[in-house]
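dumping this here before i forget
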Amino acid sequence: MAETTVSSAPSDMTAEKAIDLAEKFGVDVGEVDEEIKQILGLTKAEGVVVFAVIGGSPAELSGIKVKAIIKEVDKHEIKTLVDLGYALDQALQTQNFTVATYEPA
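structure:
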């Protein structure tokens, strides 16, 4: 059985679906915009920021922190909510995946 990659995932992913999938993982997220970029001292307005982590969730148990920028899910680069949605849609099915984050100072 062939693996589906983020780039070949169905094109019906929306930001709203991505937010729902992120909540299943245990995080409340949003895209990094110019305001968030300035607040967190980032160099680019790109990526997905964690606004809240749900207690007892897989995200909390894996050490995801508030204000972290989600950079990758299972080695798939995350630049938008839709990217996150595609990656989580696949990853949550396996229940065994990696999440790379950047925590601004």
